[in-house]
Amino acid sequence: MSSLSNKIDFAAILRVNHANPNGDPLNGNRPRTDYNGLGEISDVCLKRKLRDRLQESGSAIFVQSDDRKSDDATSLQDRAVKGLGKDFGGPETAKKASEKWLDVRAFGQLFAMKSSKKKKADSEDDSAGDTGVSIPIRGPVTVQSAFSVAPVDVTSTQITKSVSGEGDGTKRGSDTMGMKHCVDNAVYVFFGSMNPQLAERTGFSDADAEAIKAQLRRLFENDASSARPEGTMRVLKVFWWKHSTKPGQYSSARVHGTLKVNPDGTYTLENLHGLTPEEIDGF
Q1: Which of 14, 15, 54, 226 has its CA 20 to 30 A from that of 182?
Q2: Which pTM was predicted?
Q3: Do the beta carbons of residue 246 and residue 24 sit within 8 Å?
Q4: For residue 50, what is the DSSP state?
Q5: d(Cα 109, Cα 201) in Å, to the nearest integer?
């Protein structure tokens, strides 16, 4: 199985216009911000969108959204058991899972499944304990959280969530009222990298890298919701640095530092000798 030929670094510039790009459930679902007031979109959120776009393009995905499931699996363990069969839990688990699902060989996965066998309360034999599966797979693709270039302004609006479904309908319960939050207008940027050494372990290939590159520019397509109406989230530009060697000509920190983004979405790039990024317009 061929694996990634050379190290790759990438970045994307995003624009948010009157949308909630990533709500914080511990803060009333307000848009995530750091202590400096910069807007944040978590790496988990970005990888969720990447998985969805890859799945729409026909790739097999292990961690699927409930509303986008392409099989009848009721849980990740159920999908693993049905997808890997007798190989699940055995020495071939990592290899077979990486071969079957693109997100596993790209981002990695921890197969930590409890066994159906239970240790008897009166048993003193440790071998009779939990025989669950715990198999870590370290993926070659890392994605950082996205942060806004400047502090964000958050607008909060009181809304009616629902109509009263009880009584004679003449009174409105307190639970029908809610708040809706959005970032007025901001530019975000995030970075990522692909490691050829780790790609050898999972079989992540050049073709897989191209599949991810193609979906980065489409990150917010088919992702609309009441918090993110159509047209409020957009990828402005994707940058793709393909090194000439497996270890890479420069460190990822050095490469990522060459991109400077302004609050209006314009940018500058520092020139690195022998490494020029491919610049791709958003979808």
Answers
A1: 54
A2: 0.89
A3: no
A4: H
A5: 13
Structure tokens at 79: 């999908």
Residue 208: φ, ψ to 5°: -65, -40
Q: Express each pLDDT in 197-207 by its tens digit.
A: 999 999 999 99
If you average pLDDT over every residue of the chain, what do you get? 90
Separation of alpha carbons 180 and 252, rounded Å: 38
Over range 103-131, report the average pLDDT. 70
What 8-state DSSP symbol labels residue 73? -
* Cα Rg, the chain, nearest whole Å: 22
Q: Are strands 154-160 and 259-261 parallel, antiparallel or unpaired?
A: unpaired
- Is residue 40 packed enough to be buried (19+ CB in 10 Å), middle (13-18) or exposed (0-12)? buried
Distance CA 56, CA 67 (A): 13
Backbone angles phi, psi at 109, to 5 degrees: -165, 145
